[in-house]
């Protein structure tokens, strides 16, 4: 069994593999590199086999998104190649840096309670600035809205060393996620119903309910292009983010007033729809409406998951106790360090 396996999920991402895979291989620190291809329709697989013979290629039968794709890929790593004690899951559009693995591996080895960890995520095209997908570690407020150290909604901080510490966070980004393999498989991996977006936050929430921890490591840095598979302007991304946020909140909230929170979310999502409408983005408005109907249609399955998770729970998990929407848009608190 390897200590670490580097596993990249690919779907029609040949251009990113061509650009970023050489750096991953050069900075793999002797650990095996896998690319799991989600039935790409470009020539990703033939390109990999011809240009990167050292990479272990896993061909998946279909595109099941980030969640289902990584579930299948990591199962294949375990069954076909003997597995690893830890996995790192960098997006295909991640540019790694020398020494990016060692600090996180040291954290994982020193503290068996850590189930997931992330490096600092900077923007590839703005190298001093934190990137949207994870920044320096994420949190969730009591209504299910997410934010990060270094990025709150559309405000992005420059990395000036203010988050160079190693510390627990609520969620670690799926853009470059390190996970403890036995915990990943023990928990059934990601919820494949999410397809993509927020499945890693849902998983981080679930493992904390079992007593594990999630950390961010300030000594490791990578750069992320972002939107490599699904651009932020695509209404499909809006749909997945809004739907999956509701899925996550309903499944995992273990306190009182669940439906009060859901109804409050309905109001706030309605307000955000008006903002989209003001900008003429009517397809995003339709995506939010569809997301809510998809949530209601999926309630029977979510209810079963909720019950099972409550039976398994050993640790109470604390969310950020105030509304990040209120603090950002009304109180004008734009950065993590300004928050209560």
Give the topology.
Elements (H helix, E strand, L loop, with lengths): L1 E9 L3 H13 L6 E5 L6 H8 L4 E4 L5 H17 L2 E7 L3 E3 L5 H9 L3 E10 L2 E5 L7 E3 L5 E3 L2 E2 L2 E2 L9 E3 L7 E5 H6 L12 H11 L3 E12 L10 H18 L5 H21 L3 H16 L1 H14 L11 H6 L11
Parallel strand pairs: 1-2, 1-4, 2-3, 6-14
Antiparallel strand pairs: 4-13, 5-14, 6-7, 6-13, 8-9, 10-11, 12-14
Helix pairs in contact: 6-7, 7-8, 7-9, 7-10, 8-9
Overview of this protein structure:
One of its GO terms (molecular function) is glycosyltransferase activity. Belongs to the glycosyltransferase 2 family. Residues 6-155 form the Glycosyltransferase 2-like domain. There is one protein chain. The chain is α/β, with parallel strands linked by helices and 340 residues long. The chain folds into 2 domains: 2-224, Alpha-Beta Complex (Spore Coat Polysaccharide Biosynthesis Protein SpsA, Chain A), CATH 3.90.550; 235-338, no CATH class. Helices cover 41% and strands 21% of the residues. The protein has helices spanning 14-26, 44-51, 65-81, 102-110, 181-186, 199-209, 235-252, 258-278, 282-297, 299-312, 324-329; strands at residues 2-10, 33-37, 56-59, 84-90, 94-96, 114-123, 126-130, 138-140, 146-148, 151-152, 155-156, 166-168, 176-180, 213-224. Strands 1, 2, 3, 4, 5, 6, 7, 12, 13 and 14 form a 10-stranded mixed sheet that branches. It has a two-stranded antiparallel ribbon with strand order 8-9. The protein has a two-stranded antiparallel sheet with strand order 10-11. Strand 2 (33-37), helix 2 (44-51) and strand 3 form a beta-alpha-beta unit. Helix 7 (235-252) packs antiparallel against helix 8 (258-278) and helix 8 (258-278) runs antiparallel to helix 9. The longest helix has 21 residues, at 258-278. The protein is globular and about 55 Å long. The mean pLDDT is 95.
